Amino acid sequence: MNEFQLITHFFNQHQKQRPDVLLGIGDDCAILAVPPNQQLLVSIDTLVSGVHFPKSTAPFDIGHKALAVNLSDLAAMGATPAWFTLAITLPAVDKEWLGAFSKGLFTLAHSFNVQLIGGDTTRGPLAISIQVHGFAPLGKSIKRQGARPGDLIYVTNTLGDAGLALQHIMNGIELPKALFAKVAPRLNRPMPRVKEGLLLRDYASAMIDISDGLVADLGHILEQSQVGAVLDLAKIPISYALGQALSPDKALRLALSAGDDYELCFTIPAAQQETLERLLRQEKCEVHCIGRITAGKELLFQQGANYLDLAALQGYSHF
Ligand code: ADP
Ligand code: MG
Question: 145: Cβ below 6 Å to ligand 1?
Fold first, then answer.
């Protein structure tokens, strides 16, 4: 099987054709039509085997995750996903591996109506780069910059499950099989919060997706918005599985600092709280208000009546 047969067989089959793809895979470039009055948003992420996913990861999951982390970036800006390109470096042509990888990739692509429009295929150590393209109405995308003192801070769903699964796989921390089965999909098949991102477009003052951990990623919002924040530790959402697996301190540590969750962290003006929460409930989107933006530049953690900075929190909680 040569390179072109490989591309045709694994990457140019069974795709639903979007009307805005005027020319897809097969020429030197793809030709695409951006809808009028929309802006094009573009992002790229690379996954390297052994660095961004454990070497033992199933190929279906690698395909899913490579696209999911990119769709998550579009979600974090409130964009509608449209197209993606794929640059893949493979150590060998392994048909079984490629079949499972492309199944994981296209299953997710279909569910978000995104089309693969081109790419590059090379030989070398396993690495996957995906670039995504999406749309948002002129001037409507949500940036990291824009949080104001008094705004409320939210996250979607729960945090720390992906970190727990990774700790189990990489560092062998003990985890009953049933609990691992609950958290492993959150590491291997994260669901990009595209629907939430779109709903938030008219409400959020700032937004980011949590790829490196809540403290690190909220830190980007604070820095770019030139503000501080107070997080209420009692409100950090921890799943039942994570709560069962670890002591409260350790669970909280993962929820605050572990990466790979791909949930959204966003801020809204307090006056919007009721309207937005009602809308999100209607749409069956789970969100948690975890704190508020302050005028200072610091990130503080409220524990009962105490306010701790990160260093104090780490000392206090034996992190
Ligand atoms: P060129 O040499 O002009 O860059 P290639 O031979 O690399 O073209 O690729 C031929 C066609 O196949 C191009 O349209 C390219 O976008 C597409 N392609 C190559 N690799 C992939 C891939 N992994 N997934 C999707 N499309 C691909
Ligand atoms: Mg060319």
Answer: no
**Residue 120, strand partner residues:** 87
- Looking up tokens 């749309």 gives 135
Q: Which two tokens stand for residue 191?
A: 């669901």
Atom of ligand 1 nearest to the CA of 28: 3
Quick check: CB of 291 below 6 Å from ligand 1? no
The answer, yes or no, to whether any atom of ligand 1 lies below 6 A from the CB of 116, is: yes
Q: What is the β-pairing status of strands 228-232 and 80-90?
A: unpaired
Distance, in Å, from the CA atom of 14 to the CA atom of 168, rounded to the nearest integer, reads 37
Q: Is 226 left (phi over 0), alpha (psi -120 to 50) or beta?
A: left
Sign of the dihedral through C-alpha 240, 250, 192, 100: negative
- Are 159 and 261 within 8 A, CB to CB? yes
With cut-offs at 50, 70 and 90, classify the pLDDT of residue 317: low
Residue owning the nearest CA to atom 20 of ligand 1: 120
pTM metric for this prediction: 0.95
Average pLDDT over residues 120-146: 97
Distance 5 CA to ligand 1 centre (A): 11
Nearest protein CA to atom 13 of ligand 1, as residue: 26
86 lines ligand 1 (CB under 6 A): yes
Count Cβ neighbours within 10 Å for each residue of 72-95 and write b for 16 or more, e otherwise: bbbbbbbbbbbbbbbbbbbeeeee
Query: 274 CB under 6 A from ligand 1?
Result: no
Residue 314 has which token pair?
Answer: 């780490």
Matching residue, tokens 């992190």: 319
At 170-220, the pLDDT tens digits run 998 899 999 999 999 999 999 999 999 999 999 999 999 999 999 999 999
Residue bearing tokens 């801020």 = 267
CB-side exposure of 194: number of CA atoms within 13 Å? 23
Q: Which of 206, 207, 75 is nearest to 134 (CA)?
A: 75
